[in-house]
Amino acid sequence: MLVKYNDIFDMKTANIKNILSEGVVHSKVSLKGWVKSFRSNRFIALNDGSTLSNLQCVIDFEATDEALIKKISVGAAIAVEGTLEESQGKGQAIEIQVSSIEILGESDPETYPIQPKKHSLEFLREKAHLRVRTNTFSAIMRVRAALSFAVHQYFTQNGFVNVHTPIITGSDAEGAGEMFRVTTLDGKNPPLNEDGSINYKEDFFGKETNLTVSGQLEAETFAMALGKVYTFGPTFRAENSNTSRHLAEFWMIEPEMAFFDLNDNMDLAEDFIKSVISYVLENCKEDLAFLDQRFNDEEKQKPQAQRSEMTLLEKLKFVTENNFKRVSYTEAIDILRNSKPNKKKKFDYIIEEWGADLQSEHERYLVEKHFNCPVILYDYPANIKAFYMRMNEDGKTVRAMDILFPGIGEIVGGSQREERLEVLQERIKALDIDEKELWWYIDLRRYGSAVHSGFGLGFERLVQFATGMGNIRDVIPFPRTPQNAEF
Ligand code: ATP
Ligand code: MN
Fold this sequence. Notes:
CATH superfamily of the largest domain: Bira Bifunctional Protein, Domain 2
Bound molecules: adenosine-5'-triphosphate, manganese (II) ion
Helix content: 25-40%
Shape: globular
């Protein structure tokens, strides 16, 4: 456990979470927070972000200045002092009988957008600087933070070393997606080569650079010295995909383990996901109960056939209590080829032959209709996967694995990495990648190469699953998507 360095927190005001769990009746308290609602000129629902619940503050109407009462409105920041008492009203066990109140910052009731009523998620996205003041978004963001903590805790407790891989990368060989260029060249008047192309030798780094799409290649170098490592940082993809599961800037968790083969990798990924979900089930009970209610209300709006069979909490428990189904790509293709939507040509992409890339409609069919549980697909055809994945003995498939989740689709993409120098060089050549770009990556196969594996898990997709939110834009503080970088 971490200990407090000094008593700075005790010197500050208490918070509502602690008062609700351990506050003593008749004791004196002082609190600061924001007004969530104000009724009958007497009852303030105060929230300070420490917990979902508000604390009712009852002001003495007669003893309080009328001008001051006028300034209490939804959204205002206030400081109160008073005594904790058992509440007379229903809805709360304790409340504060306020002895003094100070308005720290007024809030204009005419223009404040976050009124105590239901707002649409679309509306709130346009007010992303204020949406975290709603119950829904404060709950999501606390769960997000708890998940992030659980990630670091899981890896630290299991002997992994956290690595901060670079955000700016000079290699565009990763092949994971379209990249954002990083440059200080003058866009209107860039230095040119004789053939008219841009001369990046004159750019800041003396070469073309981009924002990273993955920390994997660098993480591999560290795994080959530190054994088990992980990165957890921002990644960027300039894909023009306006889906509910893609962001242009998202956070990725990428463990990389020396001496792990694909089976070890799948075992780790499954255990890791179960562990962090268990952590929030245990530590975010109030927020998850609220999000569960919200999820179930949303589901009721949908036509029967599209409704989730499980509540959010049931879904989370299901994942922690059941084994993920492991299925080879080849088996999956057989299932899909013989499936009803394939035969009736209901899929947009009909599966005809082995080798076809799986679209999200196929992934969803497998997870949501056929298996009805999380699925790990492995051993994909080499030509639909990246160059660094380990070739199987059949010469056709690679030791790749994707984890597919109900309602989310792909949550993890990983593989055993090709550790054999010649095989890797051949693959790089076959895919027409410039070997010179990857000299340091290839070097790992020259000096003490070993079987190793890793995966990438999109943190926001995990948060989506844990919170039951349908759109990835609602689980990151300020989403970056095509045509949108406000805030
Ligand atoms: P998808 O097929 O869903 O676009 P991908 O195959 O491009 O994903 P990978 O390159 O394997 O994804 O990245 C690893 C993980 O990162 C994915 O399993 C997913 O959880 C997450 N991820 C990938 N792209 C995005 C994105 N644009 N926004 C949010 N998360 C993403
Ligand atoms: Mn993938």
